[in-house]
C-alpha cells in the first residue's frame, strides 16, 4: 500500500512542476543536439583529417600511438574534455531536479551551479570520473540517457569471441559481476561529488 501512496505523492509533485522538468530536459537535449555533439564531431573530424588518419578503431590504435603520438595526445585531451562535459550535464540535471523540488528552478541558476562544479574538477577527479563512467555506463542508460554515452559499449566482435568457449564465457560473466558490484558501490559517488 505504501508504494501506491508514494506513487500518488510523486505524481502530484510531477504535475505541479512538469513545466520545470520539461525545460530542464529540453534544454539539455537541445544543448546536446545543436552544440555539444556537432562541436565534438567537428573537432575530431578536423584532427583526423589534418593528420591523414581515416578513422580510429581497435585495429589502428597502436599505429596511431606509434606514428602519430601528438595526435594521440590531442585525442586523449579531447576525451578528457568530453568527460568534463558529461559530468557537467549530469551536474546540471541533478541541480535542476533539486531546484525544481525546492521551487527555485531557473536555467540561469542551474548553469551557475554547474559552472561552480566544473571549477572544482582537478586532474585526479578526471581519473576518478573516467573510471566511474566506465563502470557506470552500462547501467547509467537506465537513469541518465545522453547521446554522448550512447556509443560507449563493448564491441559486438569481442562479445562474440568471449562467448565461444565455456572458459571465456566464465571470464566474461565474472567481469560483468565485478563491474556490476563496483558500479553499484560507486553509484552515489558522482552525486556526492556534485552536491559537496
UniProtKB/TrEMBL annotation:
Protein name: Glycerophosphoryl diester phosphodiesterase membrane domain-containing protein
Membrane-spanning residues: 21-43, 63-88, 126-147, 167-188
A Pfam family matched in the record: GPDPase_memb
Domain of life: Bacteria
Keywords noted in UniProt: Membrane, Transmembrane, Transmembrane helix
Organism: Lactobacillus ultunensis DSM 16047
Residue intervals of the Glycerophosphoryl diester phosphodiesterase membrane domain: 9-196
Amino acid at each position: 500500500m505504501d508504494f501506491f501512496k508514494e506513487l500518488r505523492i510523486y505524481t502530484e509533485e510531477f504535475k505541479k512542476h512538469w513545466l520545470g522538468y520539461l525545460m530542464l530536459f529540453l534544454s539539455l537535449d537541445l544543448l546536446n543536439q545543436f552544440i555539444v555533439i556537432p562541436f565534438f564531431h567537428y573537432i575530431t573530424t578536423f584532427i583526423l583529417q589534418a593528420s591523414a588518419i581515416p578513422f580510429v578503431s581497435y585495429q589502428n590504435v597502436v599505429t596511431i600511438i606509434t606514428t602519430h603520438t601528438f595526435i594521440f595526445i590531442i585525442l586523449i585531451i579531447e576525451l578528457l574534455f568530453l568527460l568534463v562535459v558529461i559530468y557537467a550535464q549530469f551536474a546540471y540535471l541533478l541541480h535542476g531536479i533539486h531546484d525544481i523540488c525546492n521551487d527555485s528552478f531557473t536555467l540561469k541558476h542551474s548553469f551557475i551551479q554547474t559552472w561552480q562544479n566544473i571549477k572544482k574538477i582537478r586532474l585526479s577527479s578526471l581519473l576518478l570520473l573516467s573510471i566511474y563512467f566506465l563502470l557506470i555506463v552500462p547501467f547509467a542508460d537506465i537513469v541518465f540517457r545522453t547521446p554522448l554515452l550512447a556509443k560507449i559499449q563493448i564491441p559486438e566482435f569481442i562479445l562474440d569471441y568471449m562467448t565461444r568457449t565455456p572458459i571465456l564465457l566464465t571470464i566474461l560473466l565474472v567481469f560483468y559481476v565485478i563491474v556490476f558490484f563496483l558500479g553499484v558501490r560507486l553509484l552515489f559517488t558522482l552525486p556526492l561529488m556534485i552536491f559537496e
